[in-house]
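2024-03-11 09:14:02 DEBUG pipeline.ingest accepted 1 chain
2024-03-11 09:14:02 DEBUG pipeline.ingest length=341
2024-03-11 09:14:03 DEBUG pipeline.predict start
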Amino acid sequence: MDTAENQELSQNDLFEHFKFIASKGQEPLRVDKFLMNFIENATRSKIQKAAKDGNIWVNNTIVRQNYKVKAGDEVKVLFEHPPYEFLLTPENISLDIVYEDEALLVVNKPAGMVVHPGHGNYSGTLINALTFHFENLPNNSSNRPGLVHRIDKDTSGLLVVAKTEVAMTYLAKQFFEKTSEREYIALVWGNVENDSGTIEGNIARHPKNRLQMTVFPEGDEGKEAVTHYKVIERLGYVTLVSCKLETGRTHQIRVHMKYIRHTLFNDERYGGDKILKGTTFTKYKQFVDNAFKILPRQALHAKTLGFEHPTTKEFMKFNSELPEDMIQCIEKWRNYSKQSS
Protein backbone atom coordinates (compact mmCIF):
# COMPACT_ATOMS: atom_id res chain seq x y z
CA MET A 1 0.00 0.00 0.00
CA ASP A 2 1.52 3.36 -0.96
CA THR A 3 1.81 6.41 1.33
CA ALA A 4 -1.15 8.22 -0.24
CA GLU A 5 -3.46 5.25 0.48
CA ASN A 6 -2.08 5.00 4.02
CA GLN A 7 -2.79 8.69 4.61
CA GLU A 8 -6.30 8.36 3.21
CA LEU A 9 -7.10 5.45 5.53
CA SER A 10 -5.76 7.22 8.60
CA GLN A 11 -7.61 10.41 7.65
CA ASN A 12 -10.87 8.47 7.50
CA ASP A 13 -10.44 7.65 11.20
CA LEU A 14 -10.01 11.31 12.08
CA PHE A 15 -12.48 14.16 12.52
CA GLU A 16 -11.94 17.59 11.05
CA HIS A 17 -11.93 20.20 13.83
CA PHE A 18 -10.72 23.24 11.92
CA LYS A 19 -10.23 24.08 8.26
CA PHE A 20 -8.78 27.32 6.91
CA ILE A 21 -7.84 28.50 3.43
CA ALA A 22 -4.87 30.89 3.43
CA SER A 23 -5.85 34.14 1.72
CA LYS A 24 -4.27 35.56 -1.44
CA GLY A 25 -2.23 38.00 0.62
CA GLN A 26 -0.75 35.34 2.94
CA GLU A 27 3.01 35.69 3.25
CA PRO A 28 4.90 32.46 4.12
CA LEU A 29 4.32 31.77 7.83
CA ARG A 30 5.02 28.75 10.03
CA VAL A 31 1.88 26.64 10.36
CA ASP A 32 1.95 26.75 14.19
CA LYS A 33 2.00 30.57 14.13
CA PHE A 34 -0.65 30.62 11.39
CA LEU A 35 -2.98 28.48 13.53
CA MET A 36 -2.31 30.60 16.63
CA ASN A 37 -3.76 33.54 14.65
CA PHE A 38 -6.77 31.51 13.61
CA ILE A 39 -7.90 29.48 16.61
CA GLU A 40 -9.32 31.35 19.55
CA ASN A 41 -8.07 30.21 23.00
CA ALA A 42 -5.43 27.96 21.39
CA THR A 43 -2.04 27.65 23.08
CA ARG A 44 1.29 27.18 21.29
CA SER A 45 1.89 23.90 23.16
CA LYS A 46 -1.48 22.43 22.03
CA ILE A 47 -0.76 23.30 18.41
CA GLN A 48 2.77 21.92 18.63
CA LYS A 49 1.41 18.70 20.15
CA ALA A 50 -1.12 18.44 17.31
CA ALA A 51 1.77 18.76 14.83
CA LYS A 52 3.87 16.18 16.72
CA ASP A 53 0.91 13.76 16.69
CA GLY A 54 0.53 14.20 12.92
CA ASN A 55 -2.81 15.99 13.22
CA ILE A 56 -2.04 19.04 11.08
CA TRP A 57 -2.64 18.63 7.37
CA VAL A 58 -1.90 21.05 4.55
CA ASN A 59 -3.40 20.27 1.15
CA ASN A 60 -4.26 16.76 2.48
CA THR A 61 -0.69 16.00 3.55
CA ILE A 62 0.57 15.77 7.15
CA VAL A 63 3.06 18.58 7.90
CA ARG A 64 5.46 19.45 10.72
CA GLN A 65 5.03 22.60 12.82
CA ASN A 66 7.73 24.46 10.84
CA TYR A 67 5.89 24.06 7.52
CA LYS A 68 5.46 27.51 5.91
CA VAL A 69 1.84 28.22 4.97
CA LYS A 70 1.47 29.95 1.59
CA ALA A 71 -1.41 31.71 -0.18
CA GLY A 72 -4.14 29.27 -1.18
CA ASP A 73 -3.03 26.47 1.17
CA GLU A 74 -5.84 24.47 2.79
CA VAL A 75 -4.91 23.91 6.45
CA LYS A 76 -6.79 21.32 8.52
CA VAL A 77 -6.50 20.23 12.13
CA LEU A 78 -7.76 16.64 12.63
CA PHE A 79 -8.26 14.60 15.81
CA GLU A 80 -9.46 11.10 16.68
CA HIS A 81 -12.58 12.31 18.52
CA PRO A 82 -15.48 14.30 17.02
CA PRO A 83 -15.45 18.09 17.52
CA TYR A 84 -17.05 18.94 20.88
CA GLU A 85 -19.49 21.29 19.18
CA PHE A 86 -21.09 18.24 17.53
CA LEU A 87 -21.56 16.55 20.91
CA LEU A 88 -24.36 18.82 22.03
CA THR A 89 -25.30 18.45 25.67
CA PRO A 90 -28.69 19.95 26.59
CA GLU A 91 -28.29 22.22 29.64
CA ASN A 92 -30.97 23.66 31.89
CA ILE A 93 -30.06 27.33 31.34
CA SER A 94 -32.88 29.86 31.67
CA LEU A 95 -33.75 31.88 28.58
CA ASP A 96 -35.26 35.36 28.33
CA ILE A 97 -37.98 34.55 25.77
CA VAL A 98 -39.56 37.74 24.40
CA TYR A 99 -42.03 35.93 22.10
CA GLU A 100 -42.92 32.34 21.24
CA ASP A 101 -45.39 30.48 19.03
CA GLU A 102 -45.44 27.12 17.24
CA ALA A 103 -43.08 28.28 14.47
CA LEU A 104 -40.45 30.37 16.24
CA LEU A 105 -39.24 32.18 19.32
CA VAL A 106 -37.43 35.46 19.91
CA VAL A 107 -34.76 35.40 22.62
CA ASN A 108 -33.06 38.31 24.39
CA LYS A 109 -29.46 37.03 24.77
CA PRO A 110 -27.38 38.36 27.65
CA ALA A 111 -23.82 39.59 27.04
CA GLY A 112 -21.28 36.87 27.80
CA MET A 113 -23.38 34.00 26.43
CA VAL A 114 -21.90 32.27 23.40
CA VAL A 115 -24.51 31.46 20.74
CA HIS A 116 -23.20 28.04 19.67
CA PRO A 117 -20.48 25.67 20.92
CA GLY A 118 -17.03 26.10 19.43
CA HIS A 119 -13.37 25.98 20.40
CA GLY A 120 -13.05 26.78 24.11
CA ASN A 121 -16.82 27.17 24.61
CA TYR A 122 -18.43 23.74 24.72
CA SER A 123 -21.08 24.41 27.35
CA GLY A 124 -23.25 27.24 28.62
CA THR A 125 -24.16 28.34 25.10
CA LEU A 126 -27.53 29.39 23.73
CA ILE A 127 -27.67 26.13 21.73
CA ASN A 128 -27.10 24.08 24.90
CA ALA A 129 -30.05 25.91 26.45
CA LEU A 130 -32.29 25.62 23.37
CA THR A 131 -31.77 21.86 23.01
CA PHE A 132 -32.78 21.43 26.66
CA HIS A 133 -35.98 23.47 26.41
CA PHE A 134 -37.08 22.46 22.89
CA GLU A 135 -37.10 19.10 21.12
CA ASN A 136 -36.50 18.46 17.42
CA LEU A 137 -35.29 21.94 16.48
CA PRO A 138 -34.43 22.05 12.75
CA ASN A 139 -30.76 22.30 11.80
CA ASN A 140 -29.48 25.19 9.72
CA SER A 141 -26.92 24.73 6.91
CA SER A 142 -24.14 24.52 9.53
CA ASN A 143 -26.01 21.90 11.60
CA ARG A 144 -26.83 24.40 14.35
CA PRO A 145 -30.26 23.58 15.84
CA GLY A 146 -32.74 26.44 15.49
CA LEU A 147 -30.22 29.14 14.57
CA VAL A 148 -31.28 31.56 11.85
CA HIS A 149 -28.56 34.13 12.61
CA ARG A 150 -26.13 34.85 15.43
CA ILE A 151 -24.64 37.68 17.48
CA ASP A 152 -21.24 37.80 19.15
CA LYS A 153 -20.65 36.45 22.65
CA ASP A 154 -20.25 39.90 24.22
CA THR A 155 -23.07 41.53 22.26
CA SER A 156 -26.44 41.50 24.01
CA GLY A 157 -29.86 41.50 22.39
CA LEU A 158 -32.44 39.86 20.16
CA LEU A 159 -32.22 36.65 18.14
CA VAL A 160 -34.95 34.75 16.30
CA VAL A 161 -34.90 30.93 16.59
CA ALA A 162 -36.78 28.62 14.19
CA LYS A 163 -38.79 25.74 15.64
CA THR A 164 -39.76 24.11 12.33
CA GLU A 165 -38.05 23.37 9.00
CA VAL A 166 -40.51 25.66 7.21
CA ALA A 167 -39.75 28.53 9.61
CA MET A 168 -35.98 27.96 9.27
CA THR A 169 -36.12 28.18 5.46
CA TYR A 170 -38.50 31.15 5.40
CA LEU A 171 -36.57 33.20 7.98
CA ALA A 172 -33.13 32.35 6.56
CA LYS A 173 -34.32 33.54 3.13
CA GLN A 174 -35.26 36.95 4.61
CA PHE A 175 -31.83 37.39 6.19
CA PHE A 176 -30.20 36.36 2.91
CA GLU A 177 -32.38 38.69 0.83
CA LYS A 178 -31.92 41.59 3.32
CA THR A 179 -35.63 41.99 4.05
CA SER A 180 -35.30 41.45 7.80
CA GLU A 181 -34.79 44.51 10.01
CA ARG A 182 -31.97 44.72 12.54
CA GLU A 183 -31.03 47.78 14.58
CA TYR A 184 -28.17 47.88 17.06
CA ILE A 185 -27.20 50.51 19.62
CA ALA A 186 -23.46 51.15 19.97
CA LEU A 187 -21.27 53.46 22.02
CA VAL A 188 -18.23 54.41 19.92
CA TRP A 189 -15.03 56.34 20.48
CA GLY A 190 -14.89 59.90 19.16
CA ASN A 191 -17.38 62.55 18.09
CA VAL A 192 -18.99 61.14 14.93
CA GLU A 193 -18.87 63.98 12.42
CA ASN A 194 -22.06 63.38 10.42
CA ASP A 195 -25.48 62.97 12.00
CA SER A 196 -26.09 59.97 9.77
CA GLY A 197 -24.38 58.02 7.03
CA THR A 198 -23.81 54.72 5.26
CA ILE A 199 -20.67 52.62 5.53
CA GLU A 200 -19.94 50.31 2.60
CA GLY A 201 -16.96 48.03 2.26
CA ASN A 202 -16.41 44.30 1.73
CA ILE A 203 -15.55 42.40 4.90
CA ALA A 204 -13.21 39.40 5.16
CA ARG A 205 -10.66 37.95 7.59
CA HIS A 206 -7.70 40.18 8.37
CA PRO A 207 -4.71 38.82 6.42
CA LYS A 208 -2.39 39.07 9.44
CA ASN A 209 -4.67 38.70 12.48
CA ARG A 210 -7.11 35.93 11.57
CA LEU A 211 -9.24 36.50 14.69
CA GLN A 212 -10.15 39.92 13.31
CA MET A 213 -12.21 40.88 10.28
CA THR A 214 -11.28 43.89 8.17
CA VAL A 215 -12.65 46.06 5.33
CA PHE A 216 -11.45 45.63 1.75
CA PRO A 217 -12.69 48.91 0.19
CA GLU A 218 -11.62 47.89 -3.32
CA GLY A 219 -13.99 44.92 -3.14
CA ASP A 220 -11.26 42.52 -4.26
CA GLU A 221 -11.83 40.24 -1.25
CA GLY A 222 -14.60 39.39 1.17
CA LYS A 223 -18.35 39.83 1.05
CA GLU A 224 -20.40 42.95 0.47
CA ALA A 225 -21.33 44.73 3.71
CA VAL A 226 -23.55 47.79 4.26
CA THR A 227 -24.25 49.55 7.59
CA HIS A 228 -26.48 52.63 8.02
CA TYR A 229 -25.72 54.67 11.14
CA LYS A 230 -27.42 57.57 12.90
CA VAL A 231 -26.17 59.63 15.85
CA ILE A 232 -28.43 59.35 18.91
CA GLU A 233 -26.39 61.42 21.37
CA ARG A 234 -22.99 63.09 21.44
CA LEU A 235 -21.19 62.61 24.75
CA GLY A 236 -17.89 64.42 24.25
CA TYR A 237 -15.21 61.84 23.58
CA VAL A 238 -17.75 59.12 22.74
CA THR A 239 -20.95 59.00 20.66
CA LEU A 240 -24.08 56.90 21.04
CA VAL A 241 -25.20 55.64 17.62
CA SER A 242 -27.91 53.51 16.05
CA CYS A 243 -26.69 51.07 13.38
CA LYS A 244 -29.05 49.37 10.94
CA LEU A 245 -27.72 46.34 9.10
CA GLU A 246 -28.41 45.87 5.44
CA THR A 247 -26.13 42.81 5.41
CA GLY A 248 -25.08 40.57 8.28
CA ARG A 249 -21.35 39.85 8.16
CA THR A 250 -19.23 38.60 11.06
CA HIS A 251 -18.35 41.56 13.36
CA GLN A 252 -19.89 43.90 10.76
CA ILE A 253 -20.69 46.89 13.01
CA ARG A 254 -17.46 46.49 14.97
CA VAL A 255 -15.38 46.43 11.76
CA HIS A 256 -17.29 49.16 9.90
CA MET A 257 -17.18 51.59 12.84
CA LYS A 258 -13.44 51.00 13.25
CA TYR A 259 -13.04 51.58 9.50
CA ILE A 260 -14.49 55.10 9.88
CA ARG A 261 -12.21 55.62 12.95
CA HIS A 262 -14.95 55.22 15.57
CA THR A 263 -14.06 51.91 17.23
CA LEU A 264 -16.64 50.53 19.66
CA PHE A 265 -16.04 51.47 23.28
CA ASN A 266 -14.20 48.66 25.12
CA ASP A 267 -14.05 46.39 22.07
CA GLU A 268 -10.92 44.51 23.05
CA ARG A 269 -10.48 42.63 19.77
CA TYR A 270 -10.46 45.84 17.71
CA GLY A 271 -8.51 48.07 20.10
CA GLY A 272 -11.45 49.86 21.73
CA ASP A 273 -10.27 48.81 25.21
CA LYS A 274 -7.66 51.59 25.10
CA ILE A 275 -8.21 55.34 25.41
CA LEU A 276 -8.67 56.39 21.79
CA LYS A 277 -9.97 59.94 22.41
CA GLY A 278 -9.69 62.41 25.24
CA THR A 279 -7.17 64.13 27.48
CA THR A 280 -3.90 63.01 29.03
CA PHE A 281 -5.02 63.82 32.58
CA THR A 282 -4.65 61.03 35.13
CA LYS A 283 -8.17 61.73 36.40
CA TYR A 284 -9.55 61.14 32.90
CA LYS A 285 -7.66 57.83 32.63
CA GLN A 286 -9.17 56.77 35.94
CA PHE A 287 -12.64 57.77 34.73
CA VAL A 288 -12.29 55.67 31.54
CA ASP A 289 -10.92 52.69 33.51
CA ASN A 290 -13.99 52.88 35.76
CA ALA A 291 -16.24 53.02 32.68
CA PHE A 292 -14.48 49.91 31.31
CA LYS A 293 -15.18 48.13 34.61
CA ILE A 294 -18.88 49.05 34.46
CA LEU A 295 -19.08 47.76 30.86
CA PRO A 296 -16.48 44.97 30.58
CA ARG A 297 -17.28 44.21 26.91
CA GLN A 298 -17.88 45.95 23.59
CA ALA A 299 -20.71 48.49 23.85
CA LEU A 300 -23.11 46.84 21.42
CA HIS A 301 -26.74 45.78 21.84
CA ALA A 302 -29.08 44.19 19.25
CA LYS A 303 -32.09 46.35 20.09
CA THR A 304 -34.63 45.81 17.29
CA LEU A 305 -35.48 42.76 15.21
CA GLY A 306 -38.13 42.66 12.48
CA PHE A 307 -39.17 39.92 10.06
CA GLU A 308 -42.16 38.49 8.22
CA HIS A 309 -43.73 35.59 10.13
CA PRO A 310 -43.32 32.31 8.21
CA THR A 311 -46.92 31.21 8.79
CA THR A 312 -49.09 34.34 9.15
CA LYS A 313 -46.94 36.44 6.75
CA GLU A 314 -47.43 39.35 9.18
CA PHE A 315 -44.41 41.66 9.64
CA MET A 316 -43.40 41.40 13.30
CA LYS A 317 -41.10 43.82 15.09
CA PHE A 318 -39.52 43.36 18.52
CA ASN A 319 -37.63 45.80 20.73
CA SER A 320 -35.44 45.19 23.75
CA GLU A 321 -34.26 47.57 26.47
CA LEU A 322 -30.59 48.43 26.77
CA PRO A 323 -28.96 46.19 29.40
CA GLU A 324 -27.96 47.71 32.74
CA ASP A 325 -24.20 47.74 32.06
CA MET A 326 -24.68 49.86 28.92
CA ILE A 327 -27.17 52.17 30.65
CA GLN A 328 -24.75 52.82 33.51
CA CYS A 329 -21.79 53.39 31.18
CA ILE A 330 -23.75 55.84 28.99
CA GLU A 331 -24.97 57.71 32.08
CA LYS A 332 -21.39 57.97 33.33
CA TRP A 333 -20.28 59.52 30.02
CA ARG A 334 -23.33 61.80 30.02
CA ASN A 335 -22.39 63.21 33.42
CA TYR A 336 -18.75 63.57 32.41
CA SER A 337 -19.57 65.48 29.20
CA LYS A 338 -21.89 67.84 31.10
CA GLN A 339 -19.17 68.61 33.65
CA SER A 340 -16.57 69.09 30.92
CA SER A 341 -18.66 71.45 28.75
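2024-03-11 09:14:41 DEBUG pipeline.report Residues 201 and 218 are 8 Å apart (CA to CA).
2024-03-11 09:14:41 DEBUG pipeline.predict end
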